[in-house]
Design a protein that fits this description.
- The chain is α+β, with helices and mostly antiparallel strands.
- The chain has one domain.
- The protein contains 7 helices and 9 strands, in the order H-H-H-E-E-H-E-E-E-E-E-H-E-H-H-E.
- The strands form 2 sheets. Strands 1, 2, 5, 6, 7, 8 and 9 form a 7-stranded mixed sheet that branches.
- A hairpin with a 7-residue loop joins strand 1 and strand 2.
- The chain is globular and about 55 Å long.
């Protein structure tokens, strides 16, 4: 299930996706008039994106609506999006907070729980053990807020924390959409909030292919593959890139 792609409920969904594809084509045409990866119209890009202040306010609104951690994270210098990490399965303080230096790394075995929203959409409370050398495993919905169009894409993300000697190794693995049925209720609520904020949700399962008629230019030299639609709208790296951060010392987090 790449987003809601295979839910079997066509009709209204097909109508929504027709509008989504039309919006994507229009945005790509404005942003890349020469249809080349490295020739974006930066004047157009600066006029159309979601500003950081709105992204921070949106994270606050998502946390209030969903009853869980929703952490805003500014994109890196070479990315054209910001992120909101919505904790779905895990504990607080969450791994994403530890990675970004907002909470100290755990120093001993501890247990935590996910704060369930009022509707209990994830069923029983989840308990995650920090099993010493075994570590922590968490699941998120990661929202990418485009800085070049009023678009948001949502991916399912697994994040792990493992100890290696005195260091903490944090790994983030993204999937090309939202696939796990247990995440669907929160995914639907998240999309509803985006609609209320007049931000178009882009089904990630539909933007992991190269746009027809576009030239990769220097992208393939850098990453070894063709750029997909998501790379033109959100960030340069392939959508399923695995990222690793090492925090030196058991209680000395640093910014990634």
């Amino acid at each position: 299930m790449g987003g809601c792609t295979d839910c079997g409920k066509k009709g209204g969904c097909d109508t929504r996706k027709h509008g989504m594809f039309a919006a994507i084509d229009e945005a790509l045409g404005r942003l890349y008039p020469t249809r080349r990866w490295d020739e974006r119209d930066e004047t157009v890009a600066l006029q159309a994106g979601i500003p950081r202040e709105e992204g921070e306010a949106l994270a606050t609104a998502i946390a209030a609506r969903m009853g869980t951690l929703a952490l805003f994270r500014a994109g890196d210098a070479d990315e054209w999006c910001d992120y909101i990490y919505v904790l779905c399965l895990g504990r607080t303080p969450a791994i994403v907070e530890i990675r970004d230096g907002r909470s100290p790394a755990p120093t001993d075995t501890a247990a935590g729980t996910v704060s369930q929203p009022p509707d209990g959409d994830l069923g029983d409370t989840v308990v995650i053990e920090d099993g010493g050398d075994v570590g922590l495993d968490e699941r998120y919905l990661r929202v990418a807020l485009s800085g070049v169009a009023r678009f948001a894409g949502v991916q399912e993300v697994a994040m792990t924390l493992r100890r290696q000697g005195g260091d903490c190794v944090i790994t983030e693995s993204a999937r090309g959409g939202v696939f796990d049925p247990i995440l669907l209720p929160r995914f639907q609520t998240l999309v509803a909030v985006l609609v209320e904020w007049d931000i178009r949700h882009i089904d990630f399962g539909e933007i992991v292919e190269a746009p027809e008629g576009f030239e990769a230019a220097s992208y393939k030299e850098r990453f070894g593959v063709e750029p997909v639609i998501a790379n033109y709208l959100f960030y340069p790296q392939p959508p399923t890139t695995v990222g690793t951060v090492v925090l030196p010392g058991p209680a000395a987090p640093v910014n990634s």
